[in-house]
């Protein structure tokens, strides 16, 4: 059996992988590492959960450690402020954080530094990190272009660039920005591109930026993995659907429930938590602090149910998810495969359930045909054997935390606030309630946030003053 030591990786890296229990490489790693470590441009194709992050992280840190040693030997600085030597571009904040969780320990083992750059948070920490000097930047295109425009960083020293989930960046409309960023990197650098498909303009990136790339495709990225079992549960009406979904959420293992809209994700997470099944939501309306807290709660296992929208599907890289539920069937088959890829990752097994109303039969039939799914609809009712088998062992009931008591405003605040609120609510109640550990709109689990605080942790009162001046109550937008 091939081991990581067989690839000639630095000893500290092999030791770290062994300490983490990672000894046998996955197929995409075995196939691509000889070429990436040799400096070739590589096009990697494969489904999510195939081990792509480690496949590109290892050559990144190995190459940078070698060049850093040469620089030091020549009397040059190991790193320069604002001039990273490796760039990883990805579509979402969650994915950037999870790539960094893999890359950062490997980099630290070789004396290298990493940082993440994405929107939705203040740029001050990112600017400070860049000014202090970093070797690897893991970034979403939007904020990276902002900082490039402000001259907080330059890409002239980039030795290796990785485009991860390029097809998803294309789906989100990021390709023009990706091209502008790539044009700023040296043409002589090594480039690695990982994508499930080559449609929507991804093939243009390959032709324009990769030099005679070596292609590695370890499986059919357009088909579901064989360890994934698909089920289509046909329910009679909306009430039966609600009961079946609540039942599917009530097992002991991790499960991800997908809805089509942010409002539905927020509402379902609140309903489940109120019914004694702790759940958190993940969608674009959450501030970055709330997104990170909710994903951390799900990753750690303190909460076993995550309700998410399509935009978050590829940002969820958590092992041991045993069940994915399409509460609302997605609009097209690629979204179905991306959602379903949260389970049966890295060789594990998992179940995928689509809950189908009578009027959705035609759409689901087309969806499964394009996704190469052979499952057939089976009528179910709440509590029948099919549903119970998918639920497995029931998790114990968890009493939801009581909603925080409304705070009595002081006389001063009463005087200042009279006549300024159309709804008559206090400042705190208009901002909603979150939780100390996990946050979702309107519901709480495991504690309560102070009234008047936003979900991303920013104080509520300044935002309220902005609303009074603006007159329309529009808050700041959260970028990707």
Automatic annotation (TrEMBL):
Organism: Isoptericola luteus
UniProt name for this protein: DEAD/DEAH box helicase
The DEAD-box RNA helicase Q domain, residue ranges: 2-30
Domain Helicase C-terminal: 240-388
Keyword Transcription regulation among record annotations: no
Spans annotated as Disordered: 398-480
Biased composition (Gly residues): 439-450
Keywords: ATP-binding, Helicase, Hydrolase, Nucleotide-binding
